[in-house]
Amino acid sequence: MTTTFQTQPLTIGNVSIGFPVVQAALSGYSDLPMRVIARRHGASYTVCEVMLDQFLVALSKRQKTKHFLEIDPDEPPVGGQLMGAEPEQFSAGAMKLVEAGFDIIDVNFGCPVKKVLGRCRGGFHLSQPSVAIEILRRTRDIVPDHIPVTVKMRRGMDDTAESRDSFFEILDGAMDAGLAAATVHGRTVKQRYNGPSRWEFLTDVKQYVGDRLKILGSGDLFSAADCMRMLQQTGIDGVTVARGAIGNPWIFFQAQALAKGDALPPPPTLHEQARVIQEHVELCERTYTPERALILMRKHCIKYSQSHPNHEAVRQDLARVRERTEFDAALERHYGSDGPGRYVPDDYHRKEAE
Q1: pLDDT, tens digit, 9 for 90 and up, residues 138-170
Q2: How do residues 19-62 score in pLDDT, each as one tens digit?
Q3: Given the residues 111, 227, 284, 301, the one annotated as active site
Q4: How many CB atoms lie within 10 A of CB 130?
Q5: Residue 23 · residue 30 · CB < 8 Å
Q6: Is 111 a catalytic residue?
Q7: What are phi and psi of 63, to 5 degrees?
Q8: Which of 96, 175, 323, 351 is deepest in the core (most CB within 10 A)?
Q9: What are phi and psi of 89, to 5 degrees?
Q10: What is the pTM of this model?
Q11: Other C-beta atoms within 10 Å of 54: how many?
């Protein structure tokens, strides 16, 4: 695939992002190692995994928890995302992210996980516009003016007219409060990750806000071509790749190539894949400990394996390793001889959601 669609550089507030395909916040995934890998492969901006306001307020600099607020020197611009229930504590959590050095503060009103909703967090706020707007206002008021504040939303709790009205009420409140951007996922909270993401809703949102607010889109971005299609079809300012970037940092470089009008680059070879997996492990060892690194890498390796032609055997092998020697042996076994890789199948992530 090639494209003649011209992308425009993205800015959020006074932060210059550049190429408008960025890495989304991913709970349990987008820690420092994953963000650094994404940046090295063309992601112009990344967002850390979401953190609870209560957790941030109580967070110390102990060795076990310091990695949550750690930023690599080569990483900026990087966003810090938080989630919570109470407006006052929310703003206090935001200041923890500011003090840590995050360039943009992102408020999560999009998480659809049941236990999060049950505690009146994440996507639950889409059902209570007045509280949601108060959170945005307080957060914007406490965060220094030079640091942009953004919000992540889904298109509503469900498909009722009331949910749609609540969404646009919150969006109006975000603009009135002085937010710089909103990331909009084309599914409802009730959908979670099932069913298609309605990209046409993103078009409606961008037409509604015009130049008053930057709009980034999310949902069903599993390939570089998906990223280009969303930008072209909706007219939004940028796209945030979430599940499509786990174990597939090459998606950013591939999207850049398409944006230049070049052909889609071939999938990474086995040796290229092995180099990135090794990089990821080494970053995990430095960020955590060698003992924890392999445990944390298992979920990433399951995703990396999808780029290998013999993916099932690779997945099973890498998910079982307990020691670095076993890990290195598994890499040598499956990636020692070079060869072509494969693109992650289009239906892989969709099957996962079912």
Answers
A1: 999 999 999 999 999 999 889 999 999 999 999
A2: 999 999 998 899 999 999 999 999 999 999 988 777 777 766 55
A3: 111
A4: 11
A5: yes
A6: yes
A7: -55, -35
A8: 96
A9: -70, -30
A10: 0.93
A11: 18
